[in-house]
Write a structure and sequence with these properties.
Order of helices and strands: HEHEHEHEHEEE
Number of strands: 7
Largest sheet: 7 strands, mixed
CATH class: Alpha Beta
Strand order of the largest sheet: 3-2-1-4-5-7-6
Number of domains: 1
Distance between the termini: 37 Å
Mean pLDDT: 93
CATH superfamily: Vaccinia Virus protein VP39
Radius of gyration: 15 Å
Strand content: 15-25%
CATH topology: Rossmann fold
Low-confidence stretches: none
Number of helices: 5
CATH architecture: 3-Layer(aba) Sandwich
Structural class: alpha/beta
Amino acid sequence: MRVIAGSARSLPLKTLEGMDTRPTTDRIKETLFNMIQSEIPGCRFLDLYAGSGAIAIEALSRGAKEAVLVENSKAACACIRENLAFTKLDSQAVLMEQDVAAAIVRLSGQEVFDIVYMDPPYAKDYERGALEALAAGSIIDGYTTIIIEEKLDTDLSYVQDLGYTITKTKMYKTNKHVFLKKEGK
């Protein structure tokens, strides 16, 4: 796994051993960032369930102003710290080693994020809790792009009941990216 583009282009990133995380492949990461490339420069980026930190690091490498990474695994946080230091992007990043819902509450009252990316463990319905916390908090608005990476068969039809609209879905062989906006811009 590597950084695809920007200031840290081609630098290899570490990942965790085992099956606790599923790093987004370079091909899927490249497709994702091609879709959001115009939103990245100068943005505030929130990476929930950050894993190795590769998605937030890609955003920073491509010109995001700041990234906040949320991860509750000690091993994953150690990996993120190493990757941020190696890419020399650590001064633009904040790593929160805690539960996603608690982090969202802790971030409330700060500036709104432009992009929120979440790649929770598949088939555990964690994204629902994160979306509920985001809707109840003050860190997103109607202009924030929310991206969820999930299994192909994950049903996200409930998001409208939480106050979100699905604006786009990009399907891959084994997973998908679902793009949301909070209703009521």
